[in-house]
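Q: I'm teaching a short session on how sequence maps to structure, and I want students to see two examples side by side rather than one. Could you give me a first protein with its sequence written out and its structure tokens following it? Keep the formatting plain so it prints cleanly on a handout.
A: Of course. Example one:
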Amino acid sequence: MSTEQTAETVEYAPEHPARLAWAEHAPEVYRAMVRVDAAARKGLDPKLYELVKIRASQLNHCAFCLDMHTKDALAAGESVERVVQLAAWQESRHFYTEKELAAFELTDAVTVLTDGFVPDEVYERAAKHFDEAELAQLVSAIAVINAWNRFGVAFRMAPGHYTPGQHG
């Protein structure tokens, strides 16, 4: 009896091509975004920075950014379990510190501005865990990933081709 297994061929849906290579057509904007992104990360814990980027990208449905920041978080030493649970952080609070939870809550509030404001209690909770400089950096990081998400979604940038550290 042979122990050889038959390989199954799985046919996946075709990849959508990007709508536009926007960085080539707006190189000054792209370079400015890279500089703002680098400035926004200063003083923030690298793992938290990646988790915040993943969380905003989940909310904005940016597959390209999810691919990138999930890979970067794992490469930075973040656990698979914490990355996976991030989509349901409210129900998975025991995977995160109070400081991280405050950052996720602020990320959700700043990313989804449907009420037109960030609630005082959300901001105050974050302010208890981050000094003023860190809080300014955190909100900057949230704003920057939201901008990146808009480029990724608008131009339908394809996930799956990023390698950790490629753009950082």
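Q: Perfect. Now a second example for contrast.
A: Example two:
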Amino acid sequence: MTAIPGLIAPGTLSPTADRVVAPGGLRVIGLDLSLTSTGVALPDGSTYRIKTRQKDGDKRLLVIRNSLRAALAEHRAHLAVVEDLPVHAMAAGRTGHVHGVVKAELLDAGVPYALVVPATLKSYACDHGNADKARMAAAAYLAAGVEFVDDRGGDQCDAWWLRAAGHDALGQPLFGMPQAQRDRLQKVDWPTAVRSKPAVGVAL
């Protein structure tokens, strides 16, 4: 990726773990949004964090926007899967600001997006709506043998699971999962325009 001032260098999955490569050319990006540390899972399976500095104030929104703009231009995602704010926190301040900036950028780029609340993502990954960060990371390792560099807050792991959820929802899963956990994704409002692409064989 292009280096952008103020960002941590993009991280990658552990060298001991294979990347989970997308089948059929489908390109999904996963985004776990935060003003201080946004987790990103790129369509090629790599992950990194957009780390911002508190002293930069609202300019942190520009750092996040610019990083996402560069990623979208380079990777040309067909779908973005974004972790939504919890239902009880829909008026959340700082993270809500990030959501607004990111949604605007996705709309400008013409990238459809789906919002997945944390409880649904955790139920999909771990069959437990209150799974903690360690359990989410362990589930990723069990599912695909992946580990994450510099991910104490679980931002990259959550973004990775969001990308996986998008592939599952569009009928191109990255790995095997119990059907009961896949069924949790039916709660999500997936963009119909994207959902139809893999089924009808449209060139992506």
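Q: What should students look for in example two?
A: Point them to this: The longest strand covers residues 28-32. Also worth mentioning: Residues 1-18, 196-204 have pLDDT under 50 and may be disordered.
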